[in-house]
Amino acid sequence: MLRRSKRAALIGIRLAACALLAAAAAPGLASDDWDWDAVEAIDDAPVTKTPAAGAPAKTDATAPAAPRAAENALPDFAAEPVTVLAMFDGVAPFEVVPSQRDDEMHPCANCHQWATSNPEPRRLLTPHDNFELQHGLHGKGGFWCFTCHDVDNNFSLKTLEGEPVEFAHAYVVCSQCHAQQARDWAHGAHGKRVGNWQGRRQVFNCTACHYQHRPALKPREPLPGPTMRVGLPRPDHWVAAGQRPDHGAERQRDWQRDIERRRESVERDDTSDTAASGRVPADDAES
Amino acid sequence: MQNPDDDKPNGVSDLARRRFLKGLAVSAGAAGAVSASGGAWGGSTLSDAFADFFQQHYQRMSADEIATTIERIERKAKRRYGVDITCANTPPQDGVVFGYAINISKCRGYRDCVHACVEENNLGRDTQYIRVVELDRGSTDLHHADHYYDHAEVPRPGKDYLPMQCMHCDNPPCVKACPVEATWTEPDGIVVVDYDWCIGCRYCMAACPYQARHFNWGTPEIPAAELNPDTHYLGNRPRPRGVVEKCHFCVQRTRTGRQPACQEACPTGARVFGNLLDPNSEIRYVLENKAVFRLKEDLGTEPKFWYYRDA
Amino acid sequence: MTAAPAPRPTLVRFVFSSVGHLFRGPPLYWLWVLLLLALIALGGWHYWLQLRDGLVVTNMTNQVSWGFYIANFTFLVGVAAAAVMLVVPAYIFHRRDIKDVVLMGDTMAIAAVTMAILFVVVDLGRPDRFWHLIPGIGRFNFPESMLAWDVIVLNGYLLLNLGISFYIVYHHYRGEDPKASRYFPWVLLAIFWAISIHTVTAFLYAANSGRPYWHNALLAPRFIASAFASGPAMMALGLQIIRAISDYPIRQSVINHLALVATIALQVTLFFLLAELFTEFYNEGEHAASARYLFLGLDGHSGLTPWIWTAVVLLSIAVVILMIHPLRHNPLTMNIAFVLIIVGVWIEKGMGLIVPAFVPTPIGEIYEYTPSLTEIMVSVGIWAIGLLLFTLLAKAALPVQCEFLRRQRASEQQSWDGVERRHNAA
Fold first, then answer.
1. Residue B273 phi, psi dihedral angles, 5° rounding
2. Which ipTM was obtained for this model?
3. What pTM was estimated for this model as a whole?
4. Exposure winner among B96, C87, C197, C415, fewest CB in 10 A?
């Protein structure tokens, strides 16, 4: 029950944010115009359905939080782990945790939450040219928005066969092509288990690591390498050619910040739902 | 639970030993005074220096003695860093033997694991348990590895990245080498060190084929603000100078079901950690379904640390 | 020097008179002792610095985790074991001339093994925890750990030599012949024990399968061969010095015997070295990286290369000198050869054996090691302790021995001449 209400509250925040954004462009749009049943069309998913009627009330209740949420106005897909659909044989039930990705989000929703989409596959021109899709190895135009998105419902994905898929279950869409990765992911040889090795198994969704519109991971600067022990100078050959003198300290700072952020987010997860915590004591570990 | 000696009927010799040690304690005041005044052994008070000096091997201490020792460890850390730490003594779980697997195709050489480990395990800032080396793609020839790569961006084209740490061998040469049994394999497969028993001869470092052991040449330097207060006796508690330490699979985390810090830090999910005895574990899936290999398998060390590549 | 004591000789008197000898000596003796004491003080000061600051004051790292201390330790184990080269002919083949000086061999063994133990102690990160090694109160990983074996054999060898020497000198002091039935079993044990300190020390290194430079069956034989070159060389030098500054009767035949032993051992040493080099380099693989570092330099790192080639050249010159009979019998060239052997083996069995095993590390890292000032000073201090120990033990034992031999010679003039004739003929 607790979870249900919390989920409702979060959706409420998002709705409030959407409403604020939309207010300028489309004054007539009300949050309860959305068909929430369509968003969660997959019936057998053990995800709590949010009754459409509950949403407006919650929006009011959390109204003060709306401005903060507006900065981050895009949906975060899911607020808590959801049990993975039974699509893999021989895998004990496990859960996916929501994507923590908050940057590089598709700006599409700014318009498409109220604008109708043109379902015709085509080369995207203005005002779509600020968005580049780098997905599909042989793609180069083979993929486009409605390969994965539901043209009729901006808050839903779809399979190639047209079946709607919730964002929280994005792996369903991915696994259509990436079958090997999906199998490895379901069994734990691909992807990442979060928090604990024992007890409830919670893994990242595909989109937590791979930005769905440009799934290849970007190269990045490594953290500093080995250090010589205290009291001895670093041998010459330890320093790679072209190393920047301030490199280490700078990277160290960035990294520190990164760690802080990650730690905070983990802690937030832990406190938000004790049952979902990774620190499951051995005794209640059986799921 | 930790002390097999407790169950054995060797009370008499134990008592004799303790009496002897007590006698020594009284007569060896000078040694203790030197220890305390030198500051060499962590700035202890005289009584703590005594207790340190006569501290028994971890496996030989009774539950009470361990409790007193842990109290002292926490007290010393407070004195040294001004931080309240908790030193746990979580026992190994039944039916658990830890194993690790790394997907080389996924590792991109960011070294996030290296530094997460340094922070988590209260390493002296000149020590790193994990070494990530850069190799030509497909090669595992460590003699042509770059340990100090420092490019503007990784991964570099045509390169593989191979993280190495303690392999927690099932037949560990270091354990055999130690002349005082200061290092041993726990029931959950973790090779641990009793930092208070090690004499610092470094023979284990000569014996280890993976360069996984590290010596505290000086007192480890840890900024007090960065001290991780959640520690374990056999794990990341602050170490004294002059002893050997190594990766312990984050015993303070993993014995309570959590992932080790390196796994948690890995941004690519290249690291798979788990219970080798659980047929449904992720690590077992990797071992049974991937073409895994281990480093220096020809030495017969039986590492519990595998590598694999995506096919 | 001193006359036989008039009252009945007891243990207490023996100790007192021995200690008394230490305080009577010519100015040169005092100068020598003071010099050694100064060096010991210097080494002691640096060891204090090391205790205070930790092993950071050395140049050892996680990559090269053993250095100059263990190098010296290895060399000295060899010297200690070489006493057997006097013990065997003296007690097994009953060579009278050697039996007269065998005690000096034991004394040198005591000094060498003491130094070896001290070198291990200064290498420890936590010398304050030394009691962990004591069986019973500590926890001794025997028989798994080769280091545990080494602790036993080194200390055992020290005790054996102390015991045998004391027994013999004490009986000589009392003017009695030591009972062979009493000490001979111990002498036999000491002979095997001497070989064992070598073998165990070699096995200590060879046991590490992760370090291919050590991990070969030839290591122990090479150890023994080079030890039987350097030990007798050192002993021959020591005996000649004693002969020069005291009236202790040391016959040239003893020196010649030692020179011959050193010659043969050196030939074998060089042959083993050749065998090693061939195996490493004919089909050079990854396992030869350490040997390449030592002899040719690896990836531009060649810190030890000049040293090892110096050693090879020194040993080659020495073996040539010793193989040419006129040169081996010429005191000057022979002693030059002895010095060359000692220096050469010290390099080859010391730094040349220990450091390359760590370069490159098993995971391919290269760190070039050179000892720090502290390491050198502490080592000098330990060598001074060893020399002082040898000086004092010899100083205390020599008068007793001289007195005993004089008496013995007086009573056995006939047979003594016979022995001498027989040896001169041989």
1. -125, 145
2. 0.90
3. 0.82
4. C415
